[in-house]
Design a protein that fits this description.
Length: 317
């Protein structure tokens, strides 16, 4: 028990130290940002993918070497890049470990049982879901900005500018996240990365299917020819039509979502009402072993029902 507490305290102190060190030194953040922007350049004219290692996975050399040997770690680092998180994967894993240990210790203090405290480590997944939420919100905003950016680039091409000039204009005019991503792509082109590679790097940094369609369209147009401005206008129109269709589907699915919320909340509301009307009736269900088994089975079946209702309502466009 003392060893577990000591390890938890050490990890908490180490995590707080790394986070404060990252925040308290703006010069380090500036240099890391510049290195991150330049690290996508082609080396000796070879194809360099963002999925290959472009930034250290940890500031600790031994941990960085260990993480580089794990393929899943590189994928997780790409996940952090797509969410535009400045912390390295090592800090993220350490922070998740600290949260897991805190959850374990909290449950251990309450239950006084080692085995019953192990589920408390599930709290370690909380940073992952927070990052996932941040990434989803960022990708949604990028997708909303993309049609207007494509229209601006199309107008720039018709005015006689090069594609890189249109990307630069969009990078200057649009806010986060589209503006900085386009500006980063232009900087890569300025430092010698060819256009196709720079666009491909951006499509890997930004998990947006419409952007991938744009990159493929540009590559095909550069090989076979065609009116690139018209292609971009068509892609922008298709994206807007998809937004409209998605809005209609959301309206039609609103009734199903409301029904699902009622069905989920109804058992808990009835249980709460019975608790105030007849407390002994509910206490018997909670205190008895068979009653707890019935409650556990009901919760499992509700989770299964929620999953299938979500799959039915969630229509991909």
């Amino acid at each position: 028990m003392a060893a577990v507490i000591s390890i938890a305290v050490f990890c908490i102190i180490e995590g707080v130290y790394l986070v404060l060190q990252e925040r308290s030194n703006p010069e380090i953040k500036r240099i890391k940002k510049q290195l991150k922007d330049l690290s996508n350049q082609e080396q000796n004219q070879s194809e360099v993918s963002l999925l290959d290692h472009i930034r250290p996975l940890s500031d600790i050399p031994q941990l960085n070497k260990l993480l580089l040997s794990i393929p899943f770690a590189k994928r997780m680092d790409l996940f952090l890049i797509q969410a535009d998180v400045s912390y390295t994967l090592g800090v993220f894993l350490l922070f998740s470990t600290v949260i897991a240990l805190l959850g374990f210790l909290l449950v251990l203090i309450i239950t006084r049982s080692f085995l019953l405290s192990l589920p408390g480590m599930v709290f370690g997944l909380l940073p992952y879901f927070v990052i996932k939420f941040i990434k989803a919100r960022r990708m949604k905003k990028f997708e909303e900005q993309l049609p207007d950016a494509l229209d601006m680039i199309a107008r720039s091409l018709r005015a006689g500018h090069a594609l890189s000039g249109g990307l630069e204009m969009a990078g200057q005019e649009f806010s986060e996240p589209l503006g900085p991503e386009f500006a980063r792509t232009v900087r890569q082109i300025t430092f010698g990365v060819n256009l196709e590679r720079a666009l491909r790097n951006m499509s890997e940094r930004v998990d947006c299917p419409d952007l991938k369609f744009l990159v493929v369209s540009v590559m095909i147009q550069r090989e076979s020819g065609g009116n690139l401005g018209e292609i971009m206008e068509n892609i922008a129109r298709i994206i807007r039509e998809r937004f409209q269709l998605r809005g209609k589907i959301r309206t039609l699915a609103a009734e199903g979502k409301f029904s699902a919320i009622i069905l989920i909340a109804l058992p808990f509301l009835i249980a709460l009402a019975l608790f105030f009307i007849n407390p002994d009736y509910i206490k018997e269900l909670i205190n008895d072993t068979k009653g707890r088994m019935i409650i556990a089975g009901a919760i499992v079946m509700m989770c299964v029902g929620v999953y299938f209702m979500k799959r039915i309502i969630d229509i991909k466009v």
